[in-house]
Amino acid sequence: MNQHALPTIETIRDAAARIASHAVVTPVLRSDALDALAGAQLHFKCENFQRGGAFKFRGACNAVWSLDDADARLGVVTHSSGNHGSALALAAATRGIAAHVVVPEGAVQAKLDLIARAGAVLHRCAPNQAAREAMAEHVQRDTGAVLVHPYADARVMAGQGTIALELLAQVPTLDALVTPVGGGGLAAGVAIAAHALRPGLPLFAAEPAGADDAARSLAAGHRIESVAPDTVCDGLRALVGEPNLHALREHAVEVITVTDAETIAAMRLIWGELKIIAEVSCATVLAAVLKAPERFAGRHVGLVLTGGNVDLDALPWGTTPHP
Amino acid sequence: MNQHALPTIETIRDAAARIASHAVVTPVLRSDALDALAGAQLHFKCENFQRGGAFKFRGACNAVWSLDDADARLGVVTHSSGNHGSALALAAATRGIAAHVVVPEGAVQAKLDLIARAGAVLHRCAPNQAAREAMAEHVQRDTGAVLVHPYADARVMAGQGTIALELLAQVPTLDALVTPVGGGGLAAGVAIAAHALRPGLPLFAAEPAGADDAARSLAAGHRIESVAPDTVCDGLRALVGEPNLHALREHAVEVITVTDAETIAAMRLIWGELKIIAEVSCATVLAAVLKAPERFAGRHVGLVLTGGNVDLDALPWGTTPHP
């Protein structure tokens, strides 16, 4: 498979079979209070309960188990601000191979702890795309490890797409679907899978206003690389990948941009009403639904909550200790 | 039924049938990391996902639907620092009757909001047992409403006991069970149900060291009323009820006391590993398992997480806002 191509419904189904014995079939939660607020029936796909605490395990696991034995023996390498890194480390552990993870300075400590706990070798670099890629190439040359890109990789997108297979089976009445968009691995994989099963299903992607390169790129008709991310959503700072953007365009995914304040308010609603720990990045999906109610009124909406790896000492709203 | 008597397995089964169309069958969650920490297989019964965000809905719902029509028409009244109050308000709403809730000054704001949202009439009083009971009696006289005591009530205990029926069906291999103990409605109901199904099952109750009247009462052989509660666990400050204490003794429930620091550390573990919002009070159960590992080594342990109504602006550890 050409890693820069897009997955198909067949490769997504293959991925589902490949990861079945390793990944969790995550539950779908509901809340009367949030339904009332949105004027729609909301179905939250809880990937915070996924192995490693985020959906990223699906794509990483599919990539690791797609390798032939000779390649696998040399291990895998990636660059990631956190969740993909720990996911790849966990996935490599399921196959007993080495994982190298290049992490930018400034990544969330809870996520670095997870990577280290999963047994990966950490390689630090400066917090920009060029430094990440250069360090990953260096490790590749040194070790022979196979690069598993966080999102611009057909194996990874296929793994993320398995979420749509699961969610549509869990909630057959779904008539709209929202994911966050950062690099676009999830948004692309879900779009391809969802439209294979349900052609014409309205698809949305929630993007922070401070990292709105996907929205701008779709509007401009080509990939905009000049956006300097400035958002509290640490999982959504990556620029959308070229193949990912292509999939979003092809599947008419509508991007809804939300401010950090809207996202933080949505995160509090998720914590308070669903009683679950969800990362700030994935609260963008609820923020988007509440911001554009006319798109969702009366619909059965699937919202992918992507992860729950939160630094409990640094919540976005701050708190005072109990008396 | 004499409200000061104890429920039986029959009245607990009746309660399960009575509340079935109103209450949630809550999920059981697991964590490899927490299992490793405890040296046991931990099964968390997640009552934070119960209607109203706490197990209290079960007992309140059973009490409300146990009333005959003439009594029900006059409404119900209770005194509660929070979760039982909102549970009774929600339960009353399912039958379309009035609920009056006496709340002590200083109760958690998130819980008061829930009570008000459910449509109950709030009556404030001083934060002590005598003031709570006096105000509840006053409302009873004024309105004719039926008192539904938070824990020393056989209907309420029967409702709480349904948790054990569910959990033993969900995890048939269970060989130990831990609940928190405050007033003892949950601990008593669960003990009676669990021992009817599994005689001899080791039962434990986790109690804050700063409100250890159940531990002291069991040790002394009579109810100690002189404990002035001093604990962060707002849901466990009540003195254990007389019938509740009787059930704990009869079923050889072993009380494990834990400090607030141990409980707060356990709460962080639950949030971080299970990715759910659990109240500080219910983290006592994990604190107890980690404090007395010799009691649980290698066992399949059921832990009842009682609720998730947390004031997100006042976490017990405090946090600094994200940069």
3D structure, described in words:
The structure is a homodimer of 323-residue chains. Chain A has helices at 9-19, 32-38, 56-66, 69-73, 83-95, 109-117, 129-143, 154-170, 185-197, 213-220, 242-250, 260-274, 284-291, 293-296; strands spanning 28-29, 41-46, 76-79, 99-104, 121-125, 146-147, 176-180, 203-208, 254-258, 300-305. The first copy, chain A, contains 14 helices and ten strands. In chain A, helix 1 crosses helix 3 and helix 9 runs parallel beside helix 11. The model of chain A has no long low-confidence stretch (mean pLDDT 94). Chain A has two domains: 9-54 and 153-305, Rossmann fold; 56-147, Rossmann fold, CATH 3.40.50.1100. The first copy, chain A, starts with 8 loop residues before the first helix and ends in an 18-residue tail after the last strand. In chain A, the strands form two sheets. A six-stranded mixed sheet of chain A has the order 1-2-10-7-8-9, sandwiched between helices. A four-stranded parallel sheet of chain A has the order 5-4-3-6, sandwiched between helices. Chain A is α/β, with parallel strands linked by helices.
